[in-house]
Amino acid sequence: MVKIKLYMCGGEYPISEFPLGLGYLKTNCKADIEIVKNKKDLKECDFIGLSTNAWGIKEAVDILNATEIPVVIGGQGTLWKGLEDYNFSHIVIGEGENALNRIIDGADEKIIRMSNIKDIDSLKFPDRGRCGEHVPIFTSRGCPFRCSFCSSQNFWKNIRFHSAEYFIEEVEYILKRYPQVKVLRIFDDLFIANRKRFEKIFELWLKKNFQKRLKLKGFVRSNIVDLIAVKMMKKIGFLSIRFGAESGSDRILKLLNKGNTVEDNQRAIDIANHVGLPIQGSFMYDIPGERKEDLELTKDFIKRNQGKMSVSGWYKFRSFPGTLFYAGEDLMKTDMKVR
């Protein structure tokens, strides 16, 4: 059987953020697969498989240059222009499960583009390695919105959801496999994007009494969250919700194609406070086209919401590959640090 070692480029990850993309490959591909945390362990195998985000691409190239083992690369970092000039044996664009199985079967093309898996309920649950009290989970792939600074739409193309029943079954599996788990970290771009599905999850969650055993954390969007949804999230055990506020300037939000307004962001904060559910907002600075007055509006927005919202991130804007702001920058000369 083909032996493959997988590694996530782009920095150390805590147990609660185990790279589930690699976990799906391990359980859904027909090979002897090992996920390693230390790149020094990328040896004694037939293939090395690297998954990389935008800022992990330099590490991926360093690994490539340091080994004679064929290296396959996938993940959102593959949206960098010029990656095909490097000596990767295969570059996987998009989802990896079917692509890696093609490589295992002997595919010889360097760039492999596979159609998205339409029915993601057909996938086996991912490997999660050694879990602590916090466990990551995906209940969907993709995002229905098209923010100009985000590569999600370009990478995933379209949003697909696990059914409510699949999600509940996976939670049951997690509780049996990892009885120490106390918190599920939902890593979807937008957990409540499909309201009908969310309502079904809510119904099944309470029926199983999961709220007595588990807490949750996840992302919302200010222009689709409402009082009913926040009350439901609190009832099933959400500890907090997080959203991308990005800016306190409507002009900048429009430039970013956010599809929401400062008023929407304020309303989401006010609703969460009314319900008693902690809310976190993330922001950016150095946005192309941002003026001094726009930045001051952002600072004012944060200041007037002190005590009502915690700031989960204050990020320096970067034109990630796969976004409308990306202009083909050299992947080896670009500083992708975002904080």
Protein architecture, described:
The chain is of the alpha/beta class. The chain is built from 10 helices and 14 strands. The chain folds into 2 domains: 3-114, Rossmann fold, CATH 3.40.50.280; 131-316, Aldolase class I (TIM Barrel, Alpha-Beta Barrel). The strands form 3 sheets. The protein has a 6-stranded parallel beta sheet with strand order 2-1-3-4-5-6. The protein has a 6-stranded parallel beta sheet with strand order 7-10-11-12-13-14, covered by helices on one side. Helix 5 runs parallel beside helix 6 (195-208). 38% of the residues are buried. The model has no long low-confidence stretch (mean pLDDT 92).
Summarize the SSE layout with pairings.
Blueprint: E1 3-9, H1 20-28, E2 32-35, E3 47-52, H2 57-65, E4 71-74, E5 90-93, H3 97-104, E6 111-113, E7 134-137, E8 140-141, H4 152-156, E9 160-161, H5 164-177, E10 183-186, H6 195-208, E11 215-219, H7 227-235, E12 238-246, H8 250-255, H9 262-275, E13 279-285, H10 292-304, E14 310-316
Parallel strand pairs: 1-2, 1-3, 3-4, 4-5, 5-6, 7-10, 10-11, 11-12, 12-13, 13-14
Antiparallel strand pairs: 8-9
Helix pairs in contact: 5-6
